[in-house]
Amino acid sequence: MPSDQRGRLRSSSRESLEEAATELFLEHGYYTTTVDDIAARAGVSRATFFNYLPTKSAVLWVEVDRALDAMERALAAGASLSESLGKVTDALGKESVPLIAIQAEAMNTGEDVVAEAGKRIIALARLVADSDIAPDLVWSTTGAIVQACLEWAQAGV
Question: In this model, does residue 13 exceed pLDDT 90?
Answer without folding.
Answer: no
